[in-house]
Amino acid sequence: MCLTKLNDLKYFCSIRDNDVAMLLVNRLCMIIQASDSALIKNYCHFIINLTQSGTNMSGRTYSTCKKWILQGLEFATPESRKPILLALKNIIEIGPLDVICQDMMSLLEDKGFLRTLVTQRNSELTEINLLAINCIEAFILNVEQNNITITPKLKMIIKELIYSTALSSLEKDNCNQLYYYNITCSCLRILRYLVLNKLLNEDPNSIGEICGLIQSSMFYGISGYSNLKPKLLRPALLNIPERIGPPLHSRNIQSTTKLRMKKATNKSTLNNSYEATVMNKFSSDSETSDTEIISPDRASSRVRIEAIYLLHTIIHEIPCRDMFGYWSQIIVDTSGVHTRALVTLINNEPVSKLRQLELGTLAEAIHGARTFLAYAEESDHSTFLTFFGAVSIMIRELHNALSLLLRTEKNVAVIIHALKCVTALIHATPYARLKPQLAVKLIPYCKIYISHTDPTIRVAALSVFEALSSIDKCTPEILSILNEKCKKTFIRNEVLTFTMQSVTINNHDPDVEEVDVADVNKCLYKNEECKSADYEKSCDIDICFLLQICLNNISNKMVQVPVRLQSLKLLGALINDDMQHLVFNHIELTTQHLIEASQEAEPQVALHSCRVIEKISSRCPADLSLKELVLIKLWNMIYEPIISLTQSPHTNLREVACDCLGTIKNEIFSQLSSNKSIVIITKLLGAVKDEESAVRAASLRALGMLVTLPIIEENTEFIINLIDIVCLALEDDNLGVRIKAAWALANLSDCLIKHTNNNDMEPLPLESYLKNLYRVSVKAARDNNKVKCNVLRGVGNIIHLCKDVETLIDVSEGLQALISCATTGNDMKVRWNACRSLGFIMSYAPESILPPDWRDKIFPALCDLICHSPNFKVRTNAAWALAACNFYGKYVPFLWKSIVMALDNSQHVPNFVEYPHREALVQQLCLALGHVAARTNLSDLQILWPEIKDHVQDVAIHIKHFQERVLPEKTDEFMAAKLQMKTYVEIASTSNERKIAEILSDLFELTN
Predict the structure, then answer these.
(1) What's the half-sphere exposure (Cβ side, CA atoms, 13 Å) at 233?
(2) Which branch of life, at top level (predicted)?
(3) Which of 12, 269, 615, 838 lies at a C-alpha separation of 20 to 30 Å from 124?
């Protein structure tokens, strides 16, 4: 009776005296025996109330309570085990994991009592089985919430036990479905936790088992699909290369997905009937269990939810290549009508919330598989189905399924997810390799939502067209879709949609009088003609409908900000090489709308408008006759607004204003008045001192672009100012600023060389500036890799300039920095830029500036690179550097040996991604060999011959292949080498030298 009263208390707040509660727990554990069923039930209820009220049960009290529960499980009656299992579940949730892990291992081993309760069944699963599985789930949830890794052995024990239980529950059709639903959901959740706990890393064979379980359970309760016993799925063999390095549009999805899964799982766990009712009444206390209240349709939908959650986790946790092996079985199955794949499920799912989840999972699957979907190709002449053909069938099935869904779907949230899925599919589809009419079937169902009243749908629909505009190779089919002209009827419908939207928004206001829909329609149609006429005055019927929609959205301040921003992103995507005429044919209208938007108070709209202006300015029409005209129109309109934005209080607007100024072309800058050009330079020079690092970096980038303009080369004052600015910026605390400063230094050094070589220009006082430039550039060559890869070009240029000044500068430190960057480090761009700089220095009288032992430092380093560098572009640039020198001294035999070895090593491709660069490497090695041969002395022949005589035939094959492919003007070195060897044949003093020269002469014989 006392326990019953205790249980009737309200436990919504924590207990004040925790010690008294713990003492009571200890006493009751000693008093209550396993044979007293009534006391066991009430005491378990009391334990659950304590744990869920937040009472701190730890140390000896926790051990005593846990020991009593475990003894009760072993000796209590079957009916008493239900409340004991519920108490055990709550104890596991709050207990210390080091102790619980040991207990779970003993409970789940072959003769463990909890394992016995999970597997114990006669003909069907019971409530005892469900409660035992819930205890395992509570343990896994505790582990996941505390971010603890359990032992691989315990993972495998749990996985095998749960997998066998799930098999038993899914292969039954008409047993006690009330428990089967919950048992299946718990099993799927536990497997999901195990996958998040890196189960598949330790047991890769589990992937096929879990995928088979997903394939069976995700159609649980779908009309027309009977329960199917899960089977082991085996992945398809993919004999295709995988992209090395970070994936495209990479993002950190693991942590966010894991957190999202945790939240979703917690929500699902709270929905569990036994947790929802434990504070009020046990399921065994009532005549009707909580699960009996849930309809079978809703219960079966829970199974599908957990199956999709598990699939979503699998997609993120296993490598993309491994996941794609299961695509044909679990994502897109093209073998028949009643296939059990995710794409089929989406169009058969009766619950809208599940369709959203399934579409989100499909979008993630497409995003992960885009590397492999890019191999799709359709052919009419194939006698068998190739892998590329199979992938193309998958893509076509995806297009068909999504077009069917968009054609029939009415739920707004589902439509949004479907449009996002279409966007992911377009990004992954190689339309140029597939037969036409693929996009035409899908895009019309997306186009109808482009002026929908719901702003989220409009954003998603605009994203579809942004993806379509951003594809690498634009096909005539896609170009025709994007180039569709704007029609008056379409404009009129859009006006009507906007008006309906405003009415809908106003109707949500509680202070607005309710309006009859019929009256609204009459009013709309009455005013439609005049409203459409106003729109048509501002609309060019020759304009494509996408551009018109974007301009309307941008200029209409009543449109929601996300819609306007997405319209700006779409407008930027339309400025593509294959379709830029869509915008440039209406450049004045477009620019006018963008300028108006750039002056708005909404900073994001202004920012994105300026970004589009920047892109328009940098992407000129290919037609040179239109190029200058378009640019003049553009800059006449944007000059004043962009200049005013350099003084904006918003950092990002000042930054984008600098970016815009940096895109100005030489044709325009030369036509500007002196006042305007001075204003541009002054604004950029002033922005270098901005408080915000982003603005400083943008201004340095713009100055680095301006210094490349031919007209700027004559502006001596600007160049001198830029030297001072770059030297200061290279010592900035911000890495981004130093990166842009290094890039500006490289361009500045190029300009200095051009200026020095041009005798018609006023000479620069380089003696006053080169020392400082050399100092900061060498220091930057030891900075971050992103700084190095830009500044190394400047280091080479500055060392080259030092030979023309009277002031003596010791360049040993700079030379050593270049050699170090070329031979060490993991950034290959740094290494090949260092090679290019070394070659540039050696190409112009290196003896006049480099230390006497420069050959001893440079040649061994470059020869090692051409033979052993893992990156073929580094090898190619090292070979180019060797061919840039005109005198090799004692290193001629060594260079012959190294180049011949490099040609031999080029046959061994270290990585598939290097294969496209192999041809360029062999060509450059052949050119380098011809260059060295033309500068070989007669005395070198007998020294080099022992090193190369066994490889002459192989070298001859490379040279013949090179001559067949190279342009004739690139064979001058071969002609010089052949003439040199012919001369040696005639003047050689020994027969051995004569024979060697004759063989080498034949080596460079030109083929017709």
Answers:
(1) 27
(2) Eukaryota
(3) 269
